[in-house]
Amino acid sequence: MVVQPRSSSAEAADTVQKRKEALLLNLYINERRIEDVTVLDLKGRIRLTGRTRGLHESIRSLVKKGKTRILLNLSQVTQIDASGLDELVASCVTAGNQGGEIKLLHLTEQMREVITTANLSALFDIYNNEYDAIAGFNRKVLRAVKPSPSLANDDDAVTAMVHPPRITTKLQPR
User: Which residue ranges form the domains of the chain, and what is each CATH number?
Assistant: First the structure.
């Protein structure tokens, strides 16, 4: 069997195709700062590849530097799989262990559906507006250890929902 040499145009087409495939497989991360919040603009797919682990490594590196307020801009993420979700959860735990937190910004409809289906919407604060997300890092969250039965029968008290969901407290009128 004789193998014919490939023409340079065929090789160029293969190179272009490989580059397109590489672009589809990679996750690109752009880091920027707003006040004391690190914003990571993500582009591509969050899935089981070396670059997905790169997301967690990037977050781990930020946390080691004391940058524990992290906002992930997901507006240009085209896909996430179970391994990608694992990386998001691991990153959240890494930041949380150092007193920080990770918030999510601009979820696509597909991303929102995946996170909701995986019951992770309670783990992350999710925002549609960057300004609100940055401001969200400065809000103090009231956490009730257990409900107070003495407030349950007070008709004059106002029940207020405090973020994250399922945490409530009673506010007394002035």
Answer: 18-136 (3.30.750.24), 140-174 (no CATH)
Sign of CA dihedral 111, 116, 119, 124: positive
Strand 167-171 to strand 158-162: parallel, antiparallel, or no bridges (unpaired)?
Answer: antiparallel
d(CA 26, CA 24): 6
Rounded to the nearest 10 degrees, the angle between the axes of helix 82-97 and helix 50-64 is: 10
pLDDT recorded at residue 82: 81
Question: Count of alpha carbons within 13 Å of 21, Cβ hemisphere only?
Answer: 6
Strand partners for 73: 41, 105
Residue 98: is its pLDDT beyond 80? yes
State the pLDDT at residue 133: 95
Q: How many Cα atoms within 13 Å fall on the side-chain side of residue 131?
A: 0
Phi, psi of 15 (to 5 degrees): -65, -45
What is the pTM (predicted TM-score) of this model? 0.65
Q: Which residue has the higher pLDDT, 102 or 83?
A: 102
